[in-house]
Write the structure tokens for this entry.
Amino acid sequence: MSGQTFNANQGWKVERSITVGHIVAACAFIAAGFTAYSTTSNDIQRNAQSIAHMEQRLNDQAEYAKAVRSEFQGEIALLRRDFNSEIKVVNAKLDRLIERELKR
């Protein structure tokens, strides 16, 4: 332990000088911090863009589903009208058949 001595009466004594190694290590930590911050910032920006893109796709799909549902509802209404008119025709034919059979 260079620069450090132990005196039983006073506790640990530490040399208070800053070496070149301390300065280099501090600069390395600062550079690593900036790099980590930059990388994290870029990742956050990419994630935000990805989320915005997914939200747009979800909105587009919702609009498409609404349009398809509206189209199907229109087709169902047409089919229901056609079915009702055909039932009325069949009902009229059955009424005529029943009347003809009752007259016999």
In short: The helical segments are 20-103. Residues 5-103 form one domain.
